[in-house]
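User: quick one, sequence for these tokens?
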């Protein structure tokens, strides 16, 4: 149920989901408010693998939404390299 909900969410596609390999089964849920940006994702690098949870939180009240969101993909790329 949670996997289906997070895979259907499109609000974080440019956050953690934007840095994960397209072949991975993944989903995420983002949140934004009062200069705080967060995203929580699950990622399975291959069929039958155990799900990995990734959480990223940014407190950047002066950053634009685009700038804050752009900080997530590099985090996901690094994590995916470590998990692959």
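Assistant:
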């Amino acid at each position: 149920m949670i996997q289906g909900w997070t895979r259907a969410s499109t609000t974080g596609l440019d956050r953690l989901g934007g840095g994960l390999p397209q072949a991975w089964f993944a989903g995420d849920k983002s949140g934004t408010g009062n200069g705080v940006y967060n995203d929580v994702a699950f990622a399975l690098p291959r069929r039958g693998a155990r799900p990995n949870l990734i959480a990223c939180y940014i407190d950047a009240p002066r950053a634009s939404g685009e700038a804050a969101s752009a900080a997530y993909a590099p985090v996901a790329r690094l994590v995916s390299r470590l998990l692959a």
